[in-house]
Amino acid sequence: MRQSAARLTGAYSDGQSSQSLSAVLLVDATGARLDTGERQIIFALEDLAAESRIGNTPRVIRLNGSGRFVTRDHDQLDGLVTSGVVMGENKGWIHRLESHWHTVLLSIFGLILGASAAFVWGIPAVAKVAAMALPHDTTAAVSRLSLDAVEQILGGDSALDAERQDELRARFLESADTHAPGLPVQVEFRDGGLLGANALALPDGTIIFTDELVALAENDNELAGVFAHELGHVVHRHSLRQIIQGSIISIAAAVYFGDATAGASILAAAPVWLADMAYSRDLELEADDYAYEVMTSEGLAPHHFSSMLERLTAAHYNEVETETEKESGERKDYFSSHPATSERIARFEARERQK
Ligand SMILES: [Zn+2]
């Protein structure tokens, strides 16, 4: 229905005094007439601008230069606006936003903060719950996949003779039986290949020692310390957490950036997450705490682990330093200044002093 004439009741204020008078606004296609009973004012249609409707709150019609008229006659006013007789002000909500920009800015800030918090704390928390909830079958399947991936950067079969392997394996498995009974732990030895001196804990409980790590140890107590640390990673399912966490971030990034190649990068990065030195600081500290408990209960001094850690980081430092870097002095003390490693060594040494 086309509505071009209307009689609106409401209140008029002239914009100069705070007084408002009850009035009637008569509008048709030719113009508008405001009637307060005492006086009548004629307006051209161009002088009228109606604010947008917000529910049933009283609406303002601005009378250009001559104050405002407030009415609750929504249906009639809507008719005038939709038929184009009275101009509508669509900037109603924008106006509100402008006048509440502090709130808007604060909301955006809150949103960013919330998203960041979810990223920093939420994802690791979800990954932890998911990792602990997964049944052993799943972890075994993930392990088979990750072992395949890891074998590609490891250097193949161990050069250690079978007797030496059995000797170390027997000692480690006895320790695992005592501290984590029922956990299906297996001990494997491999040539380190690209990983060099390292130890890895796969999700299913397979713990891999590289020949280079065994060679680097000054005695078997140091290796027992490393084993206890890796056992901590298995007990707390760190590798699985790391993989899930990395996947969530990659998947989120893929969704966000619409990047289909992200799936491939998840698989490509899996071996890197499994290498022991790629764990986050929190996970390393958790595994260190576990190692400390195991070592103390076995009567091993904590320095067997911290000195091994020191030698291990030094070995990696020398390995990765290029000739140019050696000449220029760049990367000097990278590992000793690396917060995670130096913090871990300091923690172990502090505990030793407390004993
Ligand atoms: Zn570790």
Automatic annotation (TrEMBL):
Residues 320-355 are annotated as: Disordered. The chain crosses the membrane at residues 104-123. Its cofactor is Zn(2+). It comes from the Bacteria. Residues 323-335, 344-355 have a biased composition (Basic and acidic residues). InterPro entries: DUF7092 (IPR055518), Mito/Outer_Membr_Metalloprot (IPR051156), Peptidase_M48 (IPR001915). Binds 1 zinc ion per subunit. Pfam families: DUF7092 (PF23368), Peptidase_M48 (PF01435). Keywords: Hydrolase, Membrane, Metal-binding, Metalloprotease, Protease, Transmembrane, Transmembrane helix, Zinc. Residues 8-81 form the DUF7092 domain. Residues 197-351 form the Peptidase M48 domain. Belongs to the peptidase M48 family. This is M48 family metallopeptidase. It comes from Allohahella marinimesophila.
